[in-house]
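Might I ask for a little of your time on a matter of protein folding? What I wish to show you is a protein chain and, alongside it, a tokenised description of its three-dimensional fold. I should value your view on which stretches of the chain appear to form regular backbone elements. You will find the record immediately after this paragraph:
***
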Amino acid sequence: MARRTHRKSRNGCLECKRRHVKCDERQPICSNCIASERVCEYGSRFLSANPRSPFPGPGPQPQAQAQPQAHSVPTTPGSGAGISPHRQSPDQGPSASSLSASSGFSDQPVNMLHIELFQNLCTRTLETFDPTRSTPWLTDIVGQSVTSSPYLVNELLAFSALHMSTTRPPIQRAFYRYHAAQLQTHALAIYKEMNPPVTHETCVPLFVFAAVLGIHMLCDTLIYRDDNEEQGPHTGENRGCNNGSHPSDFRAFLTRFVHFFRLYHGVRAIIGESWHFIQDTPLAPHFKYNMDLYKLPGRLGLGPGCAKLLGLVERANLGNDLTKTYKQAIESLQACLNVIDGSTSASTSIPPSSASPGSDSPRRDPMHQHDAAINGITTWPLLLDIEFGDLLEQGRPEALVILAHYGMLLHRFRDSSLFGDSGRFVVQGVTRFLGQGCGWEEWLEWPNEVVSR
């Protein structure tokens, strides 16, 4: 008797394949993933992938479809069932599915999650860092990058997802943070696979990719400092939650911050390499304008608070190398503080003739300075020497005090969902970590005064 052949299906979800268990291929979530509360995902791991998640949303879970597809609509909070193809009536001619099959194109439904993230990116996330839309070229870059730079598109959507995780109701936060991490992983995988050289054509997408990636990592470190999705982000609404009351809490955060800091310096290498080519593009004046904002002021340009801090460092007789590293960190802090306060020199303004086509030239006025202010928060770690991260990891008191002064700047933007109460946490965490009555009260006087207001 001839043995009956068996064809093994390769359409199971990625999680069942990873676990080497038989998948019933029910969509959008297979039975195994429903039972084990795992993340169910089919198909490609890149942007065209349609993610499915068991995380709860306010709407009902979509019913399983009887017919498996290569890609299906993602389950998003409150979205319910996804968009399905229109049914074919006899007098309508050939169906879309038959046309796609005959032409070789796949019949892929719209990924509603990515549409939602893109809409939030354009209307909310970008507005957080550019309220008056003084960088209109960014929309053009996104449009041009869909096919040429998918790593940038994935990272922009990832950052939008992180932003939404801080603004949505608690029941939806884990869902959006999960997809923020997933899309960022995809972005890095695509970037590594493409390994794009820095050229005149790729310099701007690479620059924006590196900048957004760094800001994403910083905000995730500050908001989710416990790395605990169930507890949710630390925003202004829960200021009493984990305020660094125990030294181990702060030590755990410090480990995460140092990890972020080192990754950020990898990002800085991409930015530095791209800048050489950007100078030959129409966007050069905008980038130069922002770089000029952060020129180190030198000792004579320090305000009273930073001048006092540098004086304490110099009187501590820490040696030339340590003093030099701390001096550079304090001057960088003052440069960011100048941007936040809008007190930079008017001499760095750029002429109207150098504006990009179709847009106004950046203006050195109070409104534009306010737009740049929040970027002072994300820029400070980028300006530091890599050795400063080693000093933080070692728990050097002087480095921690400087970090507390950065926390003071963070506290200025405590109403932002992307920073929340992280400034208060950093200042109070450093204060408790160093201990009362150990001689650091004078060093920490200014930061503690600011967060106590």
In short: Residues 247-278 form the longest helix (32 residues). The CA atoms of residues 44 and 50 lie 8 Å apart. Confidence is low (pLDDT under 50) at residues 44-103, 238-242, 343-371. The longest strand covers residues 41-42.
